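Subject: for your reference before the review

Hello V.,

The reviewers asked for a structural picture of the protein, and I figured it would be easier to keep everything in one thread rather than splitting it across files. Below is the amino acid sequence we used in the manuscript, unchanged from the supplementary table.
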Amino acid sequence: MNTKARPAQVIFGIFCLLVLIANAATLFAGESELFPRPPSLQPAVTFWKEVYLTYSVGDFLLHDRTRLNLVYEVIQVEAHGNQGQAIKLAEPALRRARAKYQGILTRLAQGIPPTQLGPDGLRVAEAWGCPCSPELLRRAAENIRVQQGLREQVAQGVERARDLMPRVVPILKKHDLPVELAAIPMVESTWNTKARSKVAAVGLWQFMRATARQYFLRITRKQDERRDPLRATEGAAHLLRDNYAELGSWPLAIVAYNHGTAGIQRAQREIGSPAIEAIIANYNGPRFGFASRNFYPEFLAALEVLQPVLREHIQPRQGERPRDTSDGPTPTGVPEDSHPIITTTTSTPVTAPQEDTERNGPVGQAEMIIEGCDTTCGP
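And here is what came back from the structure prediction:
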């Protein structure tokens, strides 16, 4: 058999390959324009990707609340995928670890040399770039947060998304919305139509009761359309279009899904900038807590996780925008990784996940806190 390719076939094959490459480049360029990745947000995106893909429910990361990628220690317990059991098993070790790192940071703030604080003291000082100001170190001591890994839940969420995406994506397209917005349910509920938060947000898109009724979702004793993935997606599509019409950029519209448009407009006025990275870095509104501040980085991480599922639904484009909405430039950015210290210890409870209650609209991914800690540990 003659396996030698003819010149015309070779040329045609090269042409097809170039078309595929061009289409892929266009797809990701369009995504970048609609959903920019400012370099300052990339450490947070990387952190959430690792929470979603690397760390299991038996892994608990003690990290700085602002510099998420500064991880002091990872406490590990054997929980066999049981999230609640893992929380109970991890609590004593998490209390000890938090007290240890609070003590190290406090002593560094008092001027005690890192060399007198052992290997952990040296690592912490290096991670913070010490010598540094006592005020920064004292604030860091009160800023230690715990995040449980979500690998198993996210893996299940990807499978649920694979089943539901063919019905959800056409609704987003019908409303001229980017299909990448289908990453929001991964942040909100890991694509679980039965999800219910501690603040009574329900369903795939985690609608609160008042917001659901505003967007024509029926809630009666016998029926709750927040649990219907198609009706809830219709409501979410209208809400997201309204957000975009008010704010003019998708990063802001996405954070407003969590924090409300009025809250984001207030943040823009106080900061004097519409740039999402400026708002995340500088806005300290009383209700703009950890969940709101991290909602867009979590969205970007979820978008990467769901990319294999979404790819078949994304049409090549260059920064398309919804019709009949306000114009406004979206900032652009280039990813940049950063990842300081991580150490791991194995140990043998942190309370159950606590929802951020600051939101005006649907509610996002819960964060883990340590029972009895002061308010800086929680939302």
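For the response letter, the relevant points are probably these. The beta strands are 59-64, 71-76, 144-148, 344-346. DSSP finds 13 helices and four strands in the chain.

Happy to draft the paragraph if you're swamped.

O.
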